[in-house]
């Protein structure tokens, strides 16, 4: 009986060793590098040991796999060789089972050991590791470093064999995808919001910052039809009145229209000169205009503003050199944090939600913001990211719309409620049951 107990304890011990290696592997893989770095910088040596193990995942995982394989094989082999013999001797005493004693004893020992190994040697330890990855990784780090040192020759041999097999299979080129992609970060942000780690507005701001890299200027800028400009040939009274009535502080100065842009003037400089000299001297206070191509992306635009502290306003031109809009540092900031009427001078919010759940939307609003407000399921169509609502509607209608025209698209009905000449100004979006796109 004592021998059987010792044999059982040996099998249990091997299963525990298997569980320890499985837990250590999962804990180190699941632990967050940023948290370990913070602990290491605070003086935690075990956190530093974990970071060193993570630097060479191939070697670490090979060493762990050696430990797991040895423990599981030894548990099954030892149990089959010892406990199965004891059970077979007992089964031989039962006449009806005696012819099958060897097979039954082997199955009666190996199957329970396999089930217990799977449960307590794999699943439970890994679940514990996922619950507290950093703490368990640091607890296991000294043992894992010792294992790594002891098994280094075998690990190197396995590494060479593994790389050879991988090359034979045609996957030896290296390259591969980056360890963390932008979509991974977006997914993590969504998970954080769903689990309460991030507020909804925090998530929205971070999403806007991430999308800035791909945002074209025609989505961020103010369209030329909405630009408050100053004509250098206009009477002084008209110029002063325009500056006083506008919420903006800087104005492009033109001669006639945007075909001749002369410069940019600050309202306070022009007004101060008028109070001092009794005349409006636009030419004396102008700074040279800055032109940017409409192909420039949001992150590059932000870099331009950061590199030039005196640059506050730039005019956007198309491939023919014609001015199509204007962009300011405030526009970039708004694109990241959302609509700020007091900052940009736009008194009306871009979107107003009405009591019936519909949205009254400025047609210049980026389409991805409209899609988010309407709770459209992802993935969105490719043209949503780079289009304004007006562009989205024009592409689908295939013509210049009139007031009252509607379009059904992706679970919402869009109705044109205001036009500024041939430009769509305001749109009423009403959520509804999803249907095929049907212009009317």
From TrEMBL:
Transmembrane regions: 6-29, 60-80, 100-120
GO molecular function annotations of the record: flavin adenine dinucleotide binding
Keywords for this protein: CBS domain, Cell membrane, Membrane, Repeat, Transmembrane, Transmembrane helix
Membrane topology: Multi-pass membrane protein
Coiled-coil spans in chain: none
InterPro entries listed in its UniProt record: CBS_dom, CBS_dom_sf, CNNM, FAD-bd_PCMH-like_sf, FAD-bd_PCMH_sub2, Ion_transp-like_CBS, Transptr-assoc_dom, UPF0053_domain
Family matches, as SMART domains: CorC_HlyC
Subcellular location per the Swiss-Prot or TrEMBL entry: Cell membrane
Keyword Chloroplast set for record: no
CNNM transmembrane domain sequence ranges: 1-202
CBS domain sequence ranges: 221-282, 285-348
GO terms under cellular component: plasma membrane
Protein name, entry field: CBS domain containing protein
Lineage of the species this protein comes from: Bacteria, Pseudomonadati, Thermodesulfobacteriota, Desulfovibrionia, Desulfovibrionales
């Amino acid at each position: 009986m004592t021998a059987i107990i010792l044999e059982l304890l040996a099998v249990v011990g091997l299963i525990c060793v298997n569980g320890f290696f499985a837990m250590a592997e999962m804990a180190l893989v699941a632990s967050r590098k940023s948290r370990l770095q913070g602990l290491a910088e605070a003086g935690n040596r075990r956190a530093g040991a974990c970071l060193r193990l993570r630097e060479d995942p191939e070697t670490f995982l090979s060493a762990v796999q050696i430990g797991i394989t040895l423990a599981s094989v030894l548990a099954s082999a030892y149990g089959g060789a010892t406990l199965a013999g004891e059970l077979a001797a007992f089964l031989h005493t039962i006449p009806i089972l005696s012819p099958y004693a060897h097979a039954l004893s082997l199955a009666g020992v190996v199957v329970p050991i396999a089930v217990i190994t799977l449960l307590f040697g794999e699943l439970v330890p890994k679940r514990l590791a996922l619950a507290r990855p950093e703490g368990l990784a640091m607890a296991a780090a000294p043992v894992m470093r010792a294992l790594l040192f002891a098994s280094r020759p075998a690990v190197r041999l396995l590494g060479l064999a593994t790389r050879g097999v991988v090359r034979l299979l045609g996957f030896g080129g290296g390259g591969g995808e980056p360890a963390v992609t932008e979509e991974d970060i977006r997914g993590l942000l969504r998970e954080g919001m769903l689990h309460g780690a991030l507020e909804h507005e925090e998530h929205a701001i971070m999403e806007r910052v991430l999308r800035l890299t791909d945002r074209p200027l025609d989505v961020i800028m103010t369209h030329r039809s909405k630009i408050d400009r100053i004509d250098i040939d206009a009477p002084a009274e008209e110029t002063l009145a325009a500056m006083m009535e506008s919420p903006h502080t800087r104005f492009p100065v033109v001669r006639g229209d945007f075909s001749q842009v002369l410069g940019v003037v600050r309202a306070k400089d022009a007004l101060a000169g008028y109070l001092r000299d009794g005349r409006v001297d636009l030419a004396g206070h102008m700074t040279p205009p800055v032109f940017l191509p409409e192909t420039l992306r949001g992150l590059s635009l932000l870099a331009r503003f950061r590199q030039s502290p005196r640059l506050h306003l730039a005019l956007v031109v198309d491939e023919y050199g014609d001015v199509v809009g204007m962009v300011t540092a405030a526009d970039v900031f708004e694109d990241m944090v959302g609509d700020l009427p007091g900052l940009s001078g736009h008194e009306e919010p871009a979107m107003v939600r009405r009591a019936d759940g519909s949205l009254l939307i400025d047609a210049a609003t980026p389409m991805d913001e409209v899609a988010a407000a309407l709770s459209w399921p992802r993935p969105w169509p490719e043209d949503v990211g780079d289009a304004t609502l007006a562009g989205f509607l024009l592409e689908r209608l295939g013509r210049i719309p009139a007031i009252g025209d509607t379009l059904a698209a992706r679970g919402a009905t869009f109705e044109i409620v205001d036009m500024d000449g041939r430009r769509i100004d305001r749109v009423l979006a009403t959520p509804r049951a999803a249907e095929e796109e049907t212009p009317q």
